[in-house]
Amino acid sequence: MLTRWNTWSDFEDMFSAMNQLRAYMDRVFSDGWGSRPWEARVLPVLGSTWPRANVLDKGSAITLTAEVPGLSDKDVNVSLNQDVLTLAGERKTDGPKGYSTHRQERPEVKFSRSFTLPCRVNPDSASATVKNGILTVTIEKAAEAKPRQISVKAS
Fold this sequence. Notes:
With 155 residues, this protein is α+β, with helices and mostly antiparallel strands. The chain has helices at 7-29, 37-46, and strands at 53-57, 61-67, 76-81, 84-91, 109-116, 127-131, 134-140.
């Protein structure tokens, strides 16, 4: 005897289970006003990397810029081990003394992110600054990694 397999019923079961999970999250984490604050905390973290960063090659130096809103120079640690640059830190959300939190949409974040640099660098020349929520790390390339101009002579 042959049994017919219905793939659509499997998908319907899966979507039903996903809808039940979403309804459960809405009930447990609802703020009572119909909004879903858990989406602001959970969904962005699931598929993203923080902090967002760019690594640029400026010829004689490598520059990394990263978005670190709300962090000061004391909240961020930058380390360099051979050609791997690591950013680490923590953003805490402590309210002012004497206040209680009514709504919190910016969660505490503890992060560590490493970047393999595209060439050898001179670790003694590294500098890092934080200004307006942007971390900028500049590292000079090692002498053997810097581009060289070769003069051409007529023979």
